[in-house]
Specification:
Blueprint (H helix, E strand, L loop, with lengths): L11 E2 L3 E7 L5 E11 L3 E6 L8 E6 L9 E14 L2 E8 L1
Antiparallel strand pairs: 1-3, 2-3, 2-5, 3-4, 4-7, 5-6, 6-7
Length: 96
């Protein structure tokens, strides 16, 4: 199974500016800037300092992506976590 769910989509490495917002594990609203690690037709992966739940719904603003366009406002669901790195955790999301 791919990191984005049952359907494997080709992932392209892509470091695009990203703003993530939603609700953290304490129920508080957050907004955090990050960068995409990779992008596919069905989702993206990025590092996040804020702790969120599996299946959390997040709002994403991709600031400039060759695959997604100049500015994309997207909704996505957390489908996988990776190991923490330097106080951040890899989060993979699938677009809603």
């Amino acid at each position: 199974m791919s990191q984005y769910g049952n359907h494997r989509a080709a992932r392209e490495p892509e470091p695009s500016a990203l703003v993530i917002s939603g609700v953290d594990v304490t129920g508080a609203r957050f907004q955090e800037e990050s960068q995409t690690i990779d992008v596919s037709e069905t989702g993206i992966a990025f590092y996040l300092k804020t702790s969120v739940w599996m299946d959390a719904h997040l709002n994403l603003e991709v600031r400039s992506s060759p695959l997604l366009g100049q500015q994309s406002l997207l909704k996505a669901k957390v489908v996988r976590f990776g190991p923490p790195v330097s106080g951040k955790r890899l989060v993979a999301v699938r677009f809603d």
